[in-house]
Amino acid sequence: DGGITQSPKYLFRKEGQNVTLSCEQNLNHDAMYWYRQDPGQGLRLIYYSQIVNDFQKGDIAEGYSVSREKKESFPLTVTSAQKNPTAFYLCATQPKGTGRVAFFGQGTRLTVV
Amino acid sequence: AQSVAQPEDQVNVAEGNPLTVKCTYSVSGNPYLFWYVQYPNRGLQFLLKYITGDNLVKGSYGFEAEFNKSQTSFHLKKPSALVSDSALYFCAVRGPNSGNTGKLIFGQGTTLQVKP
User: Fold this and answer.
1) Least crowded by CB within 10 Å, which of A7, A45, A90, B66?
2) What's chain B's average pLDDT?
3) Would you give the distance in Å from CA A65 to the centre of its chain?
4) Range of weakest confidence among A37-46, B76-85, B107-116
5) For B10, which residue in chain A has the nearest alpha carbon?
6) Residue B116 pLDDT
C-alpha cells in the first residue's frame, strides 16, 4: 500500500507462457519480497532481495525468477516451469532496523487460462 | 524451525461483542510478532506489533494484542467488534535468528465475520 505499486492488478497467462509481474516502490526501502497467497495457506515467500543486484530464494522459488537492477524495482517472472501459477502475488518492502514493519502492495491476481 | 499457527479458519462474532483471533508461534529466542489485516483482493495492512516491553500492545482501529511468552501466544483482540472489521487476519513472526533478511513467517489466516 502507499508507496508500493504492483501491476497489473489482474493477469491471465496461457499454458507455456512466461509472464512478468511488476513491483515498484518509492519508500526508499532496501529490502523487497515476493509472496504467493493461496486460499487457506497464508503467505509463502518466493524470493527476496536486501540490496541491489542481489537476491535469495525463498521457500517456493521453483518456477520463478527475479531481478533487482534498481533499488525501486523488483520484478517477478513466472516461468512455464511453474506448474500451478494461479494465485495472488504480493510484493512487500521493509526498511532496516529492529522491529521493522513490512509494507505490502495491492497484489496481482494471476490466472492460467 | 519457526512457525505460526492460527487455529481457527473463521471466527464469527456479533457486532458490539468482543472479539479474539488466536495466534501461537514457535521460534528460538525472543520473537518479533505482527498482525496484519487483508480486505478482499487487497494487500496486507499492518495493525500492530510486539517487539519488546509491555505485553499488551495497542494498534490501529481499536485493536490490541497480548503477548504471552509462557503460552507462546499473541492473540488479537478488540473490545467491541464492527461489521467493517470483517476481513482476513494474519499473524506473523520474525525470529531473532532471521538476521538481516527480515523474513516473516505467516500463519494461514483467520477470516473474521462480524454480523449486525
Assistant:
1) A7
2) 92
3) 10
4) A37-46
5) A40
6) 95
Q: Are A109 and B41 in contact (CB under 8 A)?
A: yes
More confident residue, B43 or A98: B43
**Residue found under cell 476481513:** B87
Which single residue is written with the C-alpha cell 497480548?
B66
Using only C-alpha atoms, chain B has a radius of gyration, in whole angstroms, of: 14
Amino acid B75: pLDDT: 98
Tell me how close the Cα of A8 comes to any Cα of chain B, in angstroms: 13
Q: Which three cell numbers stand for residue A62?
A: 521453483
Q: Determine the Cα–Cα distance for residues A26 and A73; give it in Å rounded to an integer.
A: 9
- Please check whether residue A7 touches B, CB under 8 A: no
DSSP state of A101: P
| Residues from chain B contacting residue A99 (CB–CB below 8 Å) | 32, 49, 51
Q: How confident is the model at residue B99 (pLDDT cuts 50, 70, 90)?
A: low
- Separation of alpha carbons B95 and B114, rounded Å: 32
Q: CB–CB of B46 and A40 under 8 A?
A: no
Q: How far is B105 from chain A (nearest CA, A)?
A: 8
A1: pLDDT strictly greater than 50: no
Per residue in B44-68, pLDDT (tens digit) is 999 999 998 899 999 999 999 999 9
Q: Which residues of B touch A98 (CB under 8 A)?
A: 32, 51
